[in-house]
Design a protein that fits this description.
The protein is mainly α. The protein folds into 2 domains: about 55 residues, no CATH class; about 200 residues, MetI-like (MetI-like fold, Orthogonal Bundle), CATH 1.10.3720.10. It has 13 helices and 6 strands. A 3-stranded antiparallel sheet has the order 2-1-6, with no helix packed on it. It has a 3-stranded antiparallel sheet with strand order 3-4-5, with no helix packed on it.
């Protein structure tokens, strides 16, 4: 009579498996269908999904959430480097000027304005809204202003829209190129595999940041070209991962059965190899998005990113580095935004990896 695969331990009084069998099952990596996953894993996935959804919602609602034009310069003299929480009264004149005043009161045919510690009076006929206009409501700057009197909150929200769009589009481009090259290398035979992998090694031998700086400095591209450059230089690791996963599932029984049934190699690749090899690849997209956002911010910090006046977190940090002590908010808030965004995508990637792990 054959021996059992797992030794039976002494049965407890109430019946059931003994401690020896359950211990061996747990050590072998088996998990009961009724046992829940570790709470930390679901917490990681929930936290990452919530942060990514919040960032995406802010980016999509930027025209309504920002409350101002990110490139608007109201008063470069009195409005520069206002601290967070400041309130100023915008006074618009018919000649196109706009002054930011601490207080504005109408007295007869004059508008008395307190600005930069001085009190000045302007005739109401010079106002943009005409002599019957009342002083405007005070405007709030929740995150302060920069050296050009631009609203940091508005630039932060619009910059998040730009950074997320560039990161997601470049990551999708890199994912597409990586899947195509990796699948062709794994399923195209030894000669094509060697040729494509040597191409990947050659591209990886060139420092990515140096290549990006050279391309951007030579061509000075816009937003679309930045996406192409970042996506075109980030597919190599994806191609290696796709190739390794496809090679790992080529010897499975269902793949051998499909080949024995005479199915076309492309059909086998599309129906059996790629769907069973893309789980870790899709998980890596979150890490790739965070990496692209970091690279784009680094290029903008060096002045080689998106052209002005398009807001960018890296450019905001660069514009505030010379006033870190006097105007810390200009560089601090976009830096925090970059950290939160990258951590959010990393948490989402880790949570998806644990949720899709068949071993639990």
């Amino acid at each position: 009579m054959p021996e059992p695969l797992l030794p039976e331990g002494p049965a407890p009084a109430g019946g059931g498996e003994g401690p020896g069998r359950s211990t061996l099952l747990r050590s072998a990596g088996f998990r009961s269908a009724s046992s829940p996953r570790a709470p930390g894993r679901s917490a990681l996935l929930a936290a990452g999904a919530f942060l990514v959804a919040l960032l995406a919602a802010l980016a999509l609602a930027a025209p309504w959430v920002a409350g101002a034009d990110p490139a608007e310069q109201l008063d470069p003299v009195a409005g520069r480097y206002l601290p967070p929480g400041s309130r100023r009264v915008p006074v618009a004149f018919a000649d196109g000027r706009t002054l930011l005043a601490e207080r504005a009161v109408r007295r007869g045919d004059r508008l008395v304005v307190e600005r930069l510690g001085r009190v000045e009076a302007y005739p109401v006929e010079s106002l943009a809204e005409g002599p019957e206009a009342a002083p405007a409501e005070p405007r709030r700057f929740p995150l302060g202003t920069d050296r050009f009197s631009r609203d940091v909150w508005a630039r932060l929200v619009w910059g998040g829209r730009v950074s997320l769009a560039v990161g997601v589009l470049a990551a999708l481009l890199a994912l597409t190129l990586g899947i195509l090259v990796g699948a062709a290398a794994a399923a195209g035979g030894r000669w094509l595999d060697g040729l494509l992998m040597r191409l990947v090694d050659a591209v990886l031998a060139v420092p990515r940041l140096f290549l990006l700086v050279a391309l951007v400095a030579l061509f000075r591209p816009g937003a679309a070209a930045i996406v192409l450059v970042l996506g075109g230089t980030g597919w190599m690791s994806v191609s290696r991962l796709v190739r390794a996963e496809i090679l790992g599932v080529q010897g499975r029984d269902y793949v051998l059965a499909a080949r024995a049934a005479g199915q076309h190699p492309l059909r086998i690749l599309a129906r059996h190899l790629l769907p069973n090899a893309l789980t870790p690849v899709l998980v890596s997209v979150g890490l790739l998005v965070g990496n692209v956002i970091l690279v784009e911010s680094a290029l903008s910090f060096l002045g080689l990113g998106l052209p002005p006046p398009m807001p960018s977190w890296g450019d905001m940090i660069s514009s505030g580095t010379d006033r870190l002590t006097a105007a810390w908010w200009v560089a601090t808030f976009p830096g925090i935004a970059i950290v939160v965004t990258v951590v959010a995508f990393n948490l989402l990637a880790d949570g998806l990896r644990d949720a899709l792990d068949p071993r639990g």
